[in-house]
Amino acid sequence: MGEHIIVSKQKNKDNLSLPAFSISNKNGFIPQEEQFGKDNTYSKTDKSSNYIVKPKYFAYNPARINVGSIAYQNTITPVLVSSLYEIFRSDNNIDDVFLQYWFRSEYFYKQIQRLQEGGVRQYFFIDKMRESQIYLTNVSEQNKIGSIISKLDKLLTLQQRKLRQLKLLKNALLKRMFTAKKSPTLRFRDFSKDWKLHKLQDITDRLDNARVPVTASKRIAGSTPYYGANGIQDYVKGYTHDGEFLLVAEDGANNINDYPVICAKGKIWVNNHAHVLQAKNKKIDILFLMYALKFLNMKKYLVGGGRSKLNAETMMKLALKLPELDEEHNIGVLIKNMDVLITQYKYRIQKINKFKQFLLQNMFI
After folding, report:
1. What gap in Å lies between CA 202 and CA 318, rounded to an integer?
2. φ/ψ (deg, to 5) at 331
3. Nearest C-alpha neighbor of 320 from the set 284, 269, 353
């Protein structure tokens, strides 16, 4: 790399009023005020010893480059960074976009591991950057490689934005549909009756007595999903329940802020870490009930310390406002469809990420 980079050590000797930045492994160049707040200590210090980073220069933290704290300065004006940072630009033999992605490759990471030095804290100073080896094709091909991965990044950003919007829309719907008022502010056409308060014990049966816990070593492999507090743990032979059920974590929930409530159909095997509920005489739509329970703040009903528990008696006395059955069905289907969309976007993001990682591993040697 040494023959292709030009190092900069330009200090802010005239104490110019330039914006101060840090570098994060997620966001690249980030304003100090945004990262540490407007009243951070650094914002009040003298900045004459800080380095100036001009546009089209790279900068990195030599103590954190191993976790990706290196970035490209793509603003139109110079910025300031700590004097601890290393700063350089590439020569005309390297395309800057290509180089940005090369820095994210496994090949570069291995060189950091090989060349960094120090005791408890490892450093990768500019002399080590110079020692790094990079295999280069012509600039035209570099540009094409950078362009392909850049397009994938833009596609990822678009998919992630859509996913965030879907989640926000779903949360907005939940807040407007599940309300403490007599009826929600947002409803399907042709529904106007007030929602009625019901206790869970009045609309469901608890079938916990049929649960059977089986240690992993004693399970017989099969096609029946074996459920615990947080979902499917295994597939086994036989079953404990057959029908349509809600499984509510009793203890061992992996997220008490998004409490595990799962809709399960057909033959299932449930261990003793999930309560099993079944609707009474079709008085309630099971899908609607799942979302109604998930919308509740379950934390205030839990007992215990490190391993929180939802006691059966407490759960069955939970009070929920419910509409008529047809409206329940419509709400359940609507939110379920949104969940399907959210899952699809997550899958797309995962596939794009995998393809991007494949390119990073195979286009840089």
Report:
1. 10
2. -65, -45
3. 284
Q: Give the C-alpha separation, 297 to 181, whole Å.
A: 17
C-alpha 296/C-alpha 79 separation (Å) is 47
296 within 8 A of 319, measured Cβ to Cβ: no
- Catalogue the long-range contacts made by 258-266 (C-beta closer than 8 Å, 24 or more residues apart): 258/294, 259/293, 259/294, 259/296, 259/298, 260/229, 260/230, 260/231, 261/290, 261/293, 261/294, 262/227, 262/231, 262/290, 263/287, 263/290, 264/225, 264/227, 266/242
Chain centroid to Cα 94, Å, comes to 34
Instruction: Give the whole-angstrom CA distance, residue 97 versus residue 224.
Output: 50
Q: How far apart are CA 64 and CA 70, in angstroms?
A: 8
The residues, ordered by sequence, that sit 6+ positions from 101 with a Cβ below 8 Å of its Cβ are 145, 146, 149, 150, 360, 364
* 90 in Cβ contact with 73 (< 8 Å): no
Both structure tokens of 278: 């079944």
Distance of alpha carbon 171 from alpha carbon 60, whole angstroms: 39
pLDDT, the chain, mean: 92
Helical ranges in 236-324 per DSSP H: 286-295, 312-316
Query: What is the SS3 assignment for 225?
Result: strand
Other C-beta atoms within 10 Å of 126: how many? Answer: 19
Query: How many whole angstroms separate alpha carbon 37 and alpha carbon 31?
Result: 9
pLDDT tens, 270-309?
Answer: 999 999 999 987 778 999 999 999 999 999 999 987 788 9
| pLDDT value, residue 44 | 64
Backbone angles phi, psi at 69, to 5 degrees: -85, 70
Give me the residue label for tokens 């939110």: 335
